[in-house]
Amino acid sequence: MSRNLSILLIALLVLLPFQVLVLGHLALFNIGFCFIYLLFLLLLPNEIGYVQGMLGALVVGLIVDIFLGTLGIHAASSVFFMFLRPFWLGIITPRQGFEVNTLPSIANYGLIWFLLYATPLIIMHSLTVFFLEASGSGLFWLTLSKAGLTSLITLVFMVALQYLFYPKGKA
Amino acid sequence: MGQLLAFLYKYRAFFTFLILEVFCIWLIVSNNNYQKTVFINSASGLIGSVNESANEVSDYFSLARVNRELAEENERLRAQLLNLPESLDSLVQLDIDPDTTDTVQYYLRAAEVIDNSTSLVNNMFMINKGRGDGIEEGMGVITSRGVAGKVRSVGKRYARVVSLLNTRNPISARHLPSQRMGTIQWDGTDPKRARLLYVTREVDVAPGDTIITSGFNAVYPKALMIGIVSAVAPDANQRDLEIQVDLSVDFNALEYVYVIENKYIIEKDSLVENDPLEF
Known about the structure:
The structure holds 2 protein chains of 2 kinds. Chain A has helices at 2-23, 38-43, 50-68, 73-91, 106-109, 111-133, 140-164. Chain A is mainly alpha-helical. A 6-stranded antiparallel β-barrel of chain B has the order 1-2-5-4-3-12. Chain B is globular and about 100 Å long. Chain B has 2 domains: 2-56; 63-82 and 111-279, Beta Barrel (Thrombin, subunit H).
């Protein structure tokens, strides 16, 4: 358990500064962002309660918001993200069930399962972020393409990051 | 009562979700209101100093371009100096304009941009000058090339500026050849272009025409550069012209800006109840 805890702590302490300082306003073609901080929320163990999960998401989202100057938008989307996560985890439970004390990562459940797990949640999060941000300005297709490209980039970064720090014993 | 509590407890996940989301939406709404003091001031010292040290790293990569821009600005200013009317000559009779105050109207303060965004729909940037340097809410922000934005919230050492690239930041403008008024408004897509609204169809607008500030609000002096017309077409309602303007400021490469203080702003605002940050 302490190993998982340290993985989560490192994830938080590395991903959040990386998000706000480096990735902050970088945008591919001016529409594709990368919300790598979601990896921390995705890696939270299955056993964590609804309430704790959403409160954690609120804090993480607010920190990102304060730095990006989009107060409330990332917080709202992250809370929504953590609200959907347990339902989705219940639907895509592996056949033998979740093992106790394992993080839902590629190393523990495989690439295919992780993509199945992360993709819809990330898409929902990106859609919420960009539609909240563009509220009422009528840029439907631009907002949709922003959300699409952002989800793709975020997923690629997440998978790459997990293979980069793949635990040695499992390979 | 017990049943109610049991109900609340059973669906506690959903109720927590609702409460948190309402809190977030409240944050978003209060942050959108430019007139109210924001709940969490994102121009605070901590955020500013973190942004500033992150910016110090990337500063070095733009030194060459910043140098070139400074040289160009110096060249322009020197040319203006050379073209000034000749110095006093006792043989020429001098007309002195009657001016009761005889003071400077505008003060400029240089600041550095330490955090910037151009790819959102409502963009802001942050500068490293705050209330301690005399910056106040509502002051105009320009670069050597033209209009950049308007100060929105001020901390002790830093300030957040509403960029021109913000769909909620319309700017009063003038079409130079015809002297007609319009409003510059960004539409949220291309950071190099904005639209000039409310110019009616009979006005003769051609690509290449200059768009400047009107000076009708107290934020910007008049005749500051905004951009060049790039395309003109009648709009769908056949009432106004649909004018695309190439902005003179490159917002992706914003480094140094000037904050304008208008000494007469109180006098002007008391004459016209003018709210530059709202529609």
